[in-house]
Amino acid sequence: MTSRTRKTIICANIISRLSRGFKHPGAGLVAAAALVWLALAGAVMAQDRPVAAPADKDVVVGYHISPPFVMRDADGNLQGMAVDLWNEVAGELGYTATYRDYPTVAGLLEATRNSDIDIAVGNISITEDRATLIDFTQPWFDAGLRVMIDKEGTTGLGDVWEGLWDAGYVEAYGWIVALIILSTIGLTLFDRRFDKNFPPRWRDGFSESFYAVMLVATKGTLPSRTKLFGWIGRIFSAFWLIIGVAVLAYVTSSVTSVMTSLAIKGDIRGPEDLPGRTVGVFAGSISENIMAGEGIDIRAFEGIDQAVAALKENDVDAIVADAPVLEYYKHEHPDIGLDVVGRIFNPGKYGFALPYSQEARTQEVTIKLLALQESGELDALEKQYFGDER
């Protein structure tokens, strides 16, 4: 039974007794009305009364490196928009913070849920699923997802070879080379047996046979001969013509397929071009959930440096992550050929995260965030990191 229910029952009992105790019924009703008014006023005041602020000012703050919201300077000190915002709030509230680094967003959120930390600071998207597990402050940043690609493309010879290797064509080429060598030896033995004009020296005969085999393999034709070897030679030649045409078609189609696949990678212009591609995401992030839900092949990375390395090595075709994170990385690394393309999708908001057991602290931090927003300090901080582009 709740305290409000108990109070209601007590008030009802008092009203009943007072009504019986007054001789005049009107007097009892007046007294009852007065008590009801007092009870309702007390309930409203109890609802409007703010939650008591937490007495403990020593807090454990968890974070995940994600520039430009959380990063380290050359001396290893934490900085970034989320860090600066937290420092403003912590200074106003008199908090003394101890910091813990988490390699992934998933680890940071799990630590918050388990109350291993008092507050998680960073670009943490507020979602319905997360809100069932952890509490959030007032949102302080509008965000969403975008797509990063390697705008330099992948048209080099090394990229083509890597594509052929990954597709399994190189192994098939090895068997073709072995077949050419065996065919050259076989044709040499055949000509030495049936063609009296065939060069007697093995190296001369082998080179002539190799030339004949390569003509079959690359052009599907046989060199002109001054002498045919009867019906056996004709059948033998026709057989190798068929083999040569098949080999030429296979090599041509495989190289074309790989080069087409590499060219398609440069055609990603937004989220609608991602189906059928391999996409890099951050472990435990919103982008991981969204891409997996769309049935897109994903690879999860701890941070953006690892994801970009995979993008440059063609292990992934694109990266999907928070738009400001990708845009900032591109701005800070203009020389490595990255581009952020397409519209912002799956819009969301950032907030600080706390365990549900920290309700008083959540309210306290939220009030300070609202104050910074109303004073214009939050807008000034955003312009400091993103300029006037947002």
TrEMBL record:
Signal sequence range: none
Native organism taxonomy: Bacteria, Pseudomonadati, Pseudomonadota, Alphaproteobacteria, Hyphomicrobiales
Domain Solute-binding protein family 3/N-terminal positions: 58-389
SUPFAM superfamilies in alphabetical order: Periplasmic binding protein-like II, Voltage-gated potassium channels
Ionotropic glutamate receptor C-terminal domain location: 58-388
Protein name in the entry: Transporter substrate-binding domain-containing protein
Compartment(s) of residence: Membrane
Superkingdom of the source species: Bacteria
Membrane topology value: Multi-pass membrane protein
InterPro entries according to UniProt: Ionotropic_Glu_rcpt, Iontro_rcpt_C, Solute-binding_3/MltF_N
Organism: Hoeflea ulvae
UniProt cross-references to Pfam families, sorted A to Z: SBP_bac_3
Residues spanning the membrane: 172-190, 228-251
Keywords: Glycoprotein, Ion channel, Ion transport, Membrane, Receptor, Transmembrane, Transmembrane helix, Transport
